[in-house]
Each structure stands twice: as structure tokens, then as C-alpha cells.
Amino acid sequence: MSSTDDGHNSYFPFGNSFRLIFSRKSHISPKFLALLNDFELMLARSLRSLEPKDSSEIFSLSWMKKALESLSLIHTNIKGLITDLQFPLSDWDNSWMNVYLDDSIKLLDICIALSSELSRFDQGQLLLQYVLHILDPSINFPSSEQLKRAAESHHELMWRFKSRNPKLERCHDILQKLAEKLYIGKVRSSSKGKVLMRALYGVKVVTIFVCSIIIAVLSGSSKPLIELNAPEKFFWSKAFNELQVTILPEVRAHLSSEKVSLLKELEALDVSAGRLHNLICKKQEKLQCQCNVVDSEEFAAMEKSAENGNREEEVILSQKLSEQEERKRLQESVADLAERAEKLFEGVDILSSRVEDFFQILMNGRDALLANLRVLDQPEEKKAVS
Length: 386
Hints:
The chain is an all-alpha fold. It has one domain. Helix content is about 75%, strand content about 0%. The protein has a two-stranded parallel ribbon. Helix 3 (about 60-85) packs antiparallel against helix 7 (about 190-220) and helix 4 runs antiparallel to helix 6. About 30% of the residues are buried.
């Protein structure tokens, strides 16, 4: 079955973009060709660095951090390539500028959506700290009222983490639009322009793919994954296609399992919180049961008729041992939840920082282009005034 048949989008827009950029009659100077080769080899290295050691790594915050660092490096290097080509904006085609500005605003929207999603973890962190404070057995063993508040807070915490973020859901449509515009038209007879278009094509393919995986893992959305076709003549195409073949089946398998969250650290937190929740529920039931027994006439009669002091001591000792065991289990469960929470929120903080870095790189590139456009337009404005 083809990827389009199994509900996953595969883009082969208007044939082979490579062939459109580089016809057999193209002539590129050795200097520019060397710059292009260096850039494409850098792309290949970045892609290979994202190969997961095992399938679960794809769903971790550490992999996302590494992926965003790769995007930042790639987008920084494309600016360096433009500088090395000595390719001023006055030589750019207007359509290239329009595409660049349109693409950059879409990527900025994706960064904003990612920041919005990660900020929800900050809200959850405050709630989780409250739960851990209530249940800290080193202070006092929690009362029935504290256990009730902890159970309610746990429920709200999991609801926050598992609820959908509309901004993140819309990112899939944004990425689809970017993928549909991967086709590049004819380049005028400029070897610099052809080198730039080929480099930008690679940047766009890698950016769409990486962002689509991050969005899928964070959102858990059942929307079809975006699958791209990289022509074989690019130096980075082999690394890209191998990475895509490795990652896409794993993400699809997890999406089909209908897990609410694919994020590894969040799933671990959910499991730990679930264990703690079960302990809370059992303790609540036990306290309720004890209250019922104490209030019963049967227990009062049994207490009055108790004659054996040794047996009373055994019962008291048994109760103390039971309480000690409960306290120990609660301490272990609270400590485990705190440890998993620390890993999650530490990873979220680092990832948020990488999103901000990528956002700033995009903004700087966009601002530089707009500033240069204003400089280019300035003589025309002066002429109009005179």
C-alpha cells in the first residue's frame, strides 16, 4: 500500500524540483559549487545526528532539543552561505523574497504554538508542586482532607497535560501548506541564484520534516504525517530518506495506539502519578472503613468485652507497623513522582529555550531582509519626493 493510500500525506510536487533548478546546461563555478557542497554536507551531518539510538528516543524531550538545535544551525548556515556567495538582495528575484517572507512567518507561527504548548507545562508544574507538598510524609502523614485535595489536584493535573492545544493542532495545516510549496520554478541565468535555491530547498525540506515530528509527538494528533520525497542527487537526500524511514513508522505506530500523549517523559510522569493516586484512594478507603467501624455499636461492644491485654498490644503494634509501611510506600511514591517531574520540567525548560533561539534566528533573518528591502526602495522614494 502506498503512503497516500494508508492515510499519510506524501508530497511529490510538480515533479522533480532538483531537475527544475539544475538542468544539464547549468554551469556553476568551482567556487560556488564548493560552497554548495559544503552546505549540503552540513545538512547531511545534521540529519545523521538525529538518528535515534532506539525507537523510544524519538519521543523524548532530549531528541526534540537536538532537533531544534539542528534547525537553528541549518538556518544560521544558510545566512552564512548567502554572505559567502556575495549575493545582494538587488540580485534576488521578487518571487524568492515573497516565498522567504511567507515561509518565515509560518515558521514563526509554529514557534509561537510550541511555546504556548510548553508554557502549559509550567502551569502544571505549580499544581504538581502543590500535590507533592500536601503528600510529603516527612512533615505529617496526610489527613483524609489532604488526601482528598491531593486526589482532586492530581485529576486536574492530568487533565491539563492531556487536553488538546488548538494552536498546536493548527500547525499541521501550516506545515502542509509549506510542503505544497516545495516546488521551485525556473531560476534566471545566475549560478548564485541556482546555488541559493538548491540550498533553500534543502533547508525547507528538513525544517518541515523536523517540525512535523515534534508537533505530532507533542500533540498526539491523529492527523496524517507529512512524508516528503528528497531527490537522490542531493548530497543530503540519503541521510534524509533514511531518517524518514526510521522515524515515520515509529510515530505512526504510537499514533495508532491511541495514546493521549506520545511524550516519553510525560508518559513516565503519568504512570508514577497513577501509582500515587492508587495509594491515595486505598488510604481514603481505609480511613473511611475505620470511621465506619469506630462508629458501629458492634465495635464498641467488642472493645468493652476485651479482656486480654496482650492481644490489645498486638493489635496496636500491628497498626503501627501497618502505618509505617504505608508511610514508607507513600514516601517512595512521592519521591518517584518528584524525580520524574524534575526530569520532565527540566527538559521542558531546555526545549523552551531552544524554541526561543530558533524563533530569534528566524526573526533576525526576516528583519534583515525587510531592512535591505527598505534600503533598496529608498532611492525610488527620494525620486518620488523630488
